[in-house]
Design goal:
The protein is α+β, with helices and mostly antiparallel strands. The protein contains ten helices and ten strands. It comes from Ideonella azotifigens.
Length: 321
Amino acid sequence: MSLGEFELIDRFFKRPVQRAVLGVGDDCALLQPTPGMQLAVSTDLLVEGRHFLSTVDPARLGHKALAVNLSDLAACGAKPLGFTLSLALPRADERFLAPFAQGLLALADRHQIELVGGDTTAGPLTIGITVFGEVPPGQALLRSGARVGDDIWVSGWPGEARLALEVFRGTLALGAEDFAQARLAMECPEPRIALGLALRGLATAAIDVSDGLLGDLGHVLRRSGVGAELALARMPRRALLAGQLAAVQRIAWLTGGDDYELLFCAPEGADAALQAIATQTGVPLHRIGQVLPRGAGLRVLDEQGSPIDLTQLAGFDHFKS
């Protein structure tokens, strides 16, 4: 049985709203932010073959499509309010739509946000999501606030998603359990919303790691007008990553991308406060470097403390990578 556009929306995506003033069904949704709060808005586009593989489980794809957008709100310290979904589909296939919607809406329910509108059309599989959040005036985490002397921190275990990609590319072999862990990191990232909220008032700058740690840190350094030094000896490592060759480690850690961890700066001496936040949120935090004056540029030290050549290491670029 062929599904039409509006039947597709009604069956898989239309639900009664609880927090929004008006949701799916009209020309516009209506959101009511908490009085005195500012709106935080972010949007991302995921294209099959560019951002995800055709073999990905639809439920995981639904989860990731929303997670990567929520990660942007986390990086700004914003509390999610709602989101819209634009979906291009080669065909209205219930076998894809049912698990996709399940994964998408399960994550939405966990963060108590609602799908309030969007669009569907025929075309190559493409997913566009716009998220809306709120943040108190003057408390948004920005890329432009890093100061000389700040420590540089990262959450979680960056690099594991890249290992999964290398397995899919046939350039790396992992055992079944390690591959399952890496694939989960790649296909089902966890947006660090609670961490972003907890960092308000403490972090001086923040960004989520989507295009590779080096590339995303570079955005912070340029916006803040500073330099930085990272130490590979401080990079977080689990057995999965620690067992790889040094060259693979560096690629995964520094340029892998698709991690959706938070990279942030905080004043020197904030370790105790940040470890308390790590305990509170259940997200491990790792101090990996320090902010330096602009003239120092960006340098990375290997495990022995020697500078490494960064000329062959670059973050993901949607038009060059």
